[in-house]
Amino acid sequence: MKCESTALGKYLETSKNIFFIYGSEVVLRNNAKDDVKDHLNKKEFFEKRTITKENFDQIENIIIESSGGSLFGSKIIIDIHHDQGKLPENIAKIFEIPNIDNNEHVALIINSHNEKLNKNTKLYKTIDKFSLIIECRKLKSFEEKIWLKNQLNFIADKHKHDFVSNIYEMNIGNLVAQQNEVNILKLLYNHELGLPHTHQNDSSIFEPFELESAVIDFDTKNAIRIIHSIKESDAHYGPLLVWIIGKIVNSSAAAKQANSTKQILGKLGIWSSKIPSYMNFIKIHSLKNLIGLQKEIYMLDLTSKGLTKRNFWNDIDNIIIRLTTS
Asked: Would the pTM count as exceeding 0.85?
């Protein structure tokens, strides 16, 4: 049986305990895997064993040995990572194990990097017979908005439309970046007031997100304004600021060392609209400088957690000035 990742919830209750996840959209593959695990946890599958390519030749034995449950009688999820090449014969042989689809103690999640499957092959027909195939393809624009809206289910309805519009317009076609922004919002969102804390004293809905733009555009004045605005309204969001600055420096350092700067930035979840600014930012900063800043951000993180006696706000101002001074 096959389903789209966005419709997975409709198929879980009637599926067997074998799941084959594939497709070009990494975020949807990860989300589908999380949903499958949550479903299996409700069925008391609490233990997990991960199998990578180094252990593919042992898959059959591992499954057979696990068929009676663990030493403590618990049910086991066997998580199989296929991250390169064609599906190996070892994975195909899984479906030859007697009663593999009726095993009460073992659940299988096969997470494949393959973007497409040939429906006419014997292997596909076998997988289709024994498992729930979950396709995680690139979404069309209207599907992307629906997906994003569902990710923002913690936002009050009266504000949700604005958040969907802003995040979507800044990250069209990039679910990695959209997921990153959703995760930040989860940290920021104030359920009592219905708005992020740091936005209460500023007209900008996405002020924390603007810090990234200000830094990579070398806008020292605006970056410092954002930092001070957050300090005055909700100083306990210091760790979030460290995360944002760390993202800038770590992404830049990784891209500086890559063969294709633009490609690696996309893989790191940088918005497509921000990649040109990042590329200019990376040209200005040397790798030595970026590595030095990584060490300073590590110390800043310790300070934000109260593990050093340094002045957090003075240190973050100094780092911002270093980042935005070309």
From this structure: no
